[in-house]
Amino acid sequence: MRNSGTIYLILNALVFAIIGVMAFANPAAFAKTIDFALLAPSAMPEFLATFGGLMLAIAAAIALALVFRRHRPTAFLLLAMAYAGFGGGRLVGMLAHSGFDWRNGLFFATEVLLILWGVACYLHGRDKRPQAS
Asked: What is the 3-state secondary structure (H, E, C) of 21-89?
């Protein structure tokens, strides 16, 4: 697929931007949607830092990789690593704490798919870069 990497980056930028905007626009409703309990006064800033600010920063970094093509292989690798972190944390959480449910199973399967897609894009993009002598 010739445009697979571009599609991967665009989809990821959109998803991360949407999550970030939704978290800032209505944090209580967004937290409820993902069954996230804001139980302490310090929870809201932490929630907005993670689901708002961090997600928007990731979307901006992906947008930079879309503009500056030479940085795409790095973006592919970093996204694959981020999804490995998400998936690994989710797997530990399911095994050690909550058990499997349809939502976490779906998210985990999606994360595995995005890891594989990101690694494939990285390997393809790395092979196309000029080698330094």
From this structure: HHHHHCHHHHHHHCCCCCCCCCHHHHHHHHHHHHHHHHHHHHHHHHHCHHHHHHHHHHHHHHHHHHHHH
Token pair recorded at residue 108 = 């985990």
Tell whether the torsion through CA atoms of 95, 100, 106 and 107 is positive or negative.
Answer: negative
C-alpha span between 128 and 68 (Å, rounded): 15
Walk along the chain (133 residues) and give the pLDDT tens digit of each residue.
678 999 999 999 999 999 999 999 999 899 998 888 888 888 999 999 999 999 999 999 999 999 999 999 999 999 999 999 999 999 999 999 888 888 889 999 999 999 999 999 999 988 776 555 4
Residue 76: other Cβ atoms inside 10 A: 25
| Residues present in the chain in total | 133
Write the burial class of residue 111 (CB in 10 Å: 0-12 exposed, 13-18 middle, 19+ buried). buried
